[in-house]
Design brief:
Number of helices: 10
Number of strands: 15
Largest sheet: 7 strands, mixed
Oligomer: single chain
Strand content: 15-25%
Helix content: 25-40%
Order of helices and strands: EEEHEEHEEHEHEHEHEHEHEHEHE
Radius of gyration: 19 Å
Shape: globular
């Protein structure tokens, strides 16, 4: 099969012919219909993620058509499915309690095993997969990726966002736009923060009540003023120290901070304003992915028209364009995300 391989960090991916994936007993092999390009991929591409070694095939936001199914899998050839990026075992205590994103034996294509920047991908633990609704195109399904699902679980499964509350979103990339769209659908009032004015203007067009350019300084004070005392929920969507502290400091008393941005490499350890946590009696949540059993609730909202994910996907690209998209993460980016829809080259 054709695949994009990391042969050198921070360099163009190598388009190669590699062995086809092997179908595991409880898994399936998918013909990849679309695969999102994510900032998490960028962390691996630049060499910051410990599980991404040279020779890796990136890609963890994918949907596809089953071309082979293991004897323990419920899926059949021809089924079209969406894959969560965390493929949980279903057997460990964490899985049995429903907290599948913390599975002890989880598998993550693109991080430690071949991903979906390829014509085909192996998806073990196929009980995690969800059927692709007829009303959802493969590009939009891949656009859900880890960004919409992560945002949905962060707001509903972790922070318990309520209608009428103020939500602050720090970073308006794919997950930030998802937080905005979902927050609005849940009845929250949303203020967004970024350093790219084009992205802030785009967020305003999607329903943000206020947009703050962090280049102007004192983000927390501006959010406190706009919201009349601070956000009830604030989500950090970049994984860097400045925005993490901005998220904490913009909250009102008893507010909830959710860490969604991935802190790896030089950002893995931060100097955090713990006094703000103490004095305001804040709650801090980490959120990574979404349990696979929650997919139907999110997909139902999308099918009913309660949530429109179309604005998240800005570009359809070929596999050969993936390097340029990854390189763009190193600087200011336009609104929306890119999805690979041409897998052969």
């Amino acid at each position: 099969m054709r695949a994009a391989v990391i042969r050198e960090y921070n360099a163009d991916l190598s388009l190669e012919t590699v062995p086809d994936p092997i179908c595991e007993a409880d898994g399936v092999v998918l013909k990849v219909l679309a695969c999102g390009i994510c900032r998490s991929d960028w962390h691996g591409w630049v060499g910051e993620h410990p599980k991404v070694k040279l020779g890796a095939i990136p890609g963890h936001e994918y949907c596809g058509e089953v071309v082979e199914a293991g004897p323990l899998a419920k899926w059949r050839v021809g089924d079209r499915v969406i894959a969560p990026f965390i493929l949980s075992c279903g057997q460990c205590p964490e899985c049995q309690s429903g907290q599948t994103t913390t599975c002890r034996a989880q598998r993550v294509p693109g991080f430690g095993e071949p991903g979906a920047y390829a014509e085909y991908v192996s998806a073990p633990h196929a009980h995690n997969l969800a059927r692709l609704p007829e009303s959802l195109t493969p590009a939009l399904a891949a656009g859900l990726g880890c960004r919409v699902t992560t945002a949905f679980h962060a707001l509903t499964g972790r922070a318990a966002l309520q209608a009428g509350e103020w939500l602050a979103v720090h970073g308006t990339g794919g997950v930030g736009l998802s937080l905005l769209i979902l927050g609005r659908a849940l009845g929250a009032r949303v203020v967004v923060v970024d350093v790219v004015q084009e992205r802030l203007d785009h967020a305003l067009s999607l329903g943000a009540e206020a947009a703050i350019n962090a280049k102007d300084g004192d983000v927390a004070a501006k959010i406190i003023e706009i919201t009349g005392g601070g956000a009830h929920v604030s989500v950090e969507a970049l994984g860097i120290e400045a925005t993490a502290n901005g998220s904490l400091e913009c909250l009102r008393t008893m507010g909830r901070h959710v860490q969604v941005g991935l802190p790896v490499g030089h950002t893995a350890k931060m100097q955090i304003n713990m006094n703000a946590v103490y004095m305001k009696q804040l709650s801090l949540f980490g959120s990574r992915g979404m349990p696979s059993w929650r997919y139907p609730s999110l997909l139902t909202l999308i099918e009913m028209g309660r949530v429109d994910v179309a604005p998240i996907v800005a570009r359809h690209v070929a596999l050969s364009d993936a390097s340029a998209e990854l390189r763009a993460f190193g600087g200011p980016m336009p609104p929306g995300v890119a999805v690979i829809t041409q897998m052969a080259g």
